[in-house]
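> example.struct
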């Protein structure tokens, strides 16, 4: 991130936040023993290990096409990808010359089983902080619900980053999701895990439907502090 830049608006509505299991197996539970699953995300890896410690994670990197190629070439038995990215690939028309899996091999994973990454599915627009005219224009297309979700989730992440900056080389497995529950109240869920998925701490906080951007930010900071209190100072000791 560079000084002098800011997130000026959030394009809505938010896309599907879920991760998906891509391949012939319809769920994590149905993967064969010692299955090779492709993912470069430490957040996905940790939650995958929490469900299935026998899984062999293959660190597949590159764009979506490169990752799908690993599945076609039998380098992995399945992939875990963001559904939003796959949906955009299918809708953009850019997949016409790229082999893609049939939709029958795309299996959404419930957020209860794999909490999404911070702001997953949200497109944000960044501009110069001193460009008053552009900031004003972009505010007119800002999506309120996407903005509130991003404010809360990013604030949670900021707390984790601030408190672990000197104790962990990089960012540990962390996830957050702000959403409307069945009562139309906002609910923020957060998760912090060890890379092997053996230890996970979670939090869930609810607030009213008329939540403001500032209130969402404070809610996220509160959730982040709860995660840090639950995990304790030795949570990541022994992990590199």
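> example.seq
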């Amino acid at each position: 991130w560079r000084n002098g830049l800011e997130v000026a608006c959030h394009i809505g509505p938010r896309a599907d936040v879920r991760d998906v299991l891509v391949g012939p197996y319809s769920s994590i539970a149905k993967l064969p023993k010692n299955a090779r699953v492709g993912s470069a995300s430490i957040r996905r890896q940790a939650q995958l290990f929490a469900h299935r410690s026998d899984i062999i994670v293959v660190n597949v990197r590159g764009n979506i096409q490169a990752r799908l190629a690993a599945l076609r070439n039998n380098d992995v038995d399945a992939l875990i990808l963001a559904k939003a990215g796959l949906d955009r690939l299918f809708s953009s028309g850019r997949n016409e010359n790229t082999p893609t899996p049939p939709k029958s091999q795309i299996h959404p994973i419930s957020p209860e089983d794999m909490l999404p990454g911070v702001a997953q599915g949200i497109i944000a627009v960044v501009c110069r902080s001193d460009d008053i005219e552009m900031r004003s224009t972009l505010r007119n297309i800002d999506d309120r619900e996407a903005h509130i979700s991003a404010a809360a989730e990013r604030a949670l992440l900021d707390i984790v980053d601030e408190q672990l900056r000197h104790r962990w080389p990089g960012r540990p497995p962390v996830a957050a999701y702000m959403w409307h529950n069945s009562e139309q109240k906002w609910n923020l869920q957060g998760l912090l895990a060890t890379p092997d998925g053996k230890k996970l701490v979670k939090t869930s906080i609810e607030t009213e439907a008329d939540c403001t951007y500032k209130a969402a930010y404070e809610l996220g900071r509160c959730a982040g502090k709860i995660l840090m209190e639950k995990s304790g100072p030795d949570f990541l000791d022994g992990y590199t």
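> remarks
DSSP finds six helices and ten strands in the chain.
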